[in-house]
Write a structure and sequence with these properties.
The structure is a homodimer.
Chain A (H helix, E strand, L loop, with lengths): L3 E7 L12 E7 L8 E9 L4 H4 L19 E9 L9 E6 L4 E4 L5 E2 L16 H14 L6 E5 L4 H12 L3 E6 L2 H9 L5 E4 L4 H8 L4 E6 L3 H7 L3 E9 L24 H5 L3 E4 L2 H4 L4 H13 L7 E5 L4 H8 L7 E5 L2
Parallel strand pairs in A: 8-9, 8-11, 9-10, 11-12, 12-13, 14-15
Antiparallel strand pairs in A: 1-2, 3-4, 3-6, 3-15, 4-5, 5-7
Helix pairs in contact in A: 2-3
């Protein structure tokens, strides 16, 4: 049976929250790699919040996906054909491209990985871009020190899971924030955070109780009311690692102000010598991927870092799963098993 | 004639903007230095915005001045008597203490200075704490690079003057913001900034015109509507050096939120990888003072840095001058000639 390429295209730009009609599912011939390219068969597709930005044509740090083009995303899979030196059929690779079964990619960002080291899907999560994001943001901005208090929003998500566990390895008291009792129980019970607060309940009261000595490092994944509750509790020399603000991605995608709620008055930034800094992992992260992977594999082997995935079966279900991701419906790193 | 000590005390904590009745002027005997202390006769007193914070008992980075105590401030003058090694009567020193004619001080923060190097009052401005503030904030946070655009608020003030001129030395395009045509003319004509915008006029339109390529470094001295106009114009990897927010010192002195207006939505901090960082010069500045002074004296000799002072005659006029400082009434570094 001749295989076909299954692709998910951006049909139109969403108005607010994406809906299924914003996507189009097509079957096309398997592409032929050009000279210098590698043909990759995806086994796993990563779904991540940043993709909401790519669906919008608002000015951002990366080009938007064009209407009618394949949705952007990273996959893990195997090499089917190679016209590039250093890659051969059967190689297991991280870095295939897009919401599709087959992709032709340049080898520059393709990492050959050892499938014995960890389950392949982990290279899209704890060992992939989300894990690298956590590691880079803490190395460069958060700089947690033993004895400090770290608060992590979206604590059960792909990045938050890793942030908090690195915080524990660094000797911090780590307090997660997540949506609902089930996620909070996982964060404390399975991931070993010291506490996890449910943002559906009174966050001020919970933070008062969980962080009586204030907050030294805040990992920002969400924005909105969670940010408003955390900000006044930052200690002198506190750091806010600005990784994302998913709470407003559907309000003002990439825009500066239109519809976005105001933020905190910045007076305390002077008085407390706060550092509020944003970063995008692709700026400086990938050249450091081998170093990160080596360290993280060590932590996984030692049982010091665990992870949870939310597996979606079948590429056709990716749009619905992605819509759910923006609503917090997933529980753990969201990955699609590509059929 | 036996001299007396003239002192200005904090009589009560201001409600909002300070008024003359918040201060008390007293004459007392000249104090006797204890063992290990130096008696300094002030010739110049520095008046600076941070003093508003010390009048309040809201939580801050430094202890408030107690009711009935001498107002905090730095002076330059000469040693009258010394019971500390390394200082002798007649030495010219920076680091005397308080709104008073005579003070007994520990030698740890007293700098002996050469009165031939520059006029003594300059050691309270361009060669003193405000100059050091500019230098440290740019070294540690602003990190201006040649070809970048720097915007400086309160550009004709003690710190702003120096910030912009260092920016020019570093090869930046420097745009000041000040209140009124007279100050703006001084900033461009005397200090050599590329442009200076009057915040009483339409700042958005002026910024569009003066900074067509966006803003890479913003030196924040004021907050409020100036901050709101600058923030959306920050470029990718822009830095906000948070030195002060004088526009709200009388609204919410030191407080986190009470009465303070909201700030910008922080979504762009992620997308643009902004760094917003506050600092207080006394944290790390003074050990670097000799290095700073050496470099700044070189710039002064070469005519690359100029400065302007607003001189108030007589210590009894300090309260009124300070009240004016918080209203932007001064024009240049505000210093009191101590009689």
């Amino acid at each position: 049976m001749a295989e076909t390429n299954l692709q998910i295209l951006l049909r139109r730009r969403p108005q607010g929250a994406p809906v299924p009609e914003d996507f189009e599912i097509v079957e096309t011939p398997v592409p032929e790699p050009a000279e210098g390219e590698v043909l990759v068969r995806a086994r796993w597709l990563s779904l991540d919040p940043y993709m909401r930005g790519r669906m919008s044509d608002a000015k951002s740090y990366a080009k938007p996906v064009e209407i009618g083009a394949v949705m952007e995303g990273q996959t893990a899979g195997e090499v089917v054909a190679s016209r590039a030196p250093g890659f051969a059929p059967g190689d297991t690779v991280l870095g295939g491209y897009g919401w599709q079964r087959f992709s032709c990619v340049q080898p520059a960002r393709l990492f050959r990985i050892d499938p014995q080291e960890a389950p392949l899907s982990a290279s899209l999560g704890v060992l992939g871009m989300p894990g690298l994001t956590a590691w880079v943001g803490l190395e460069d901005i958060g700089q947690p020190k033993a004895g400090e208090t770290m608060v992590v929003s979206a604590a059960s998500g792909a990045v938050g899971q890793v942030v908090g566990q690195i915080g524990k390895i660094r000797g911090c008291k780590v307090v997660g924030i997540a949506g609902g009792r089930k996620k909070c129980d996982f964060v404390t019970g399975e991931l070993g955070f010291d506490a996890c607060l449910d943002h559906h309940e009174d966050l001020d009261a919970q933070l008062d109780k969980a962080c009586p000595e204030g907050i030294d490092v805040y990992w920002e994944n969400v924005g909105g009311p969670v940010q408003a509750a955390v900000f006044p509790r930052l200690n002198d020399f506190g750091r806010m690692v600005m990784c994302g603000m998913i709470a407003q991605y559907n309000i003002a995608p990439g825009a500066d102000a239109s519809g976005a709620p105001p933020g905190p008055n910045l007076g305390p930034v002077v008085r407390k010598r706060l550092r509020i800094q944003g970063f995008i992992v692709s700026d400086t992260g990938w050249p450091r991927y081998p170093e990160f992977r080596r360290q993280m594999l060590g932590w996984l082997r030692e049982g010091r870092v665990r992870w949870r995935e939310d597996v979606v079966e079948g590429l056709r279900n990716a749009p619905d799963a992605f819509i759910g991701l923006l609503q917090g419906r997933n529980f753990g790193k969201l990955v699609v098993k590509v059929d």
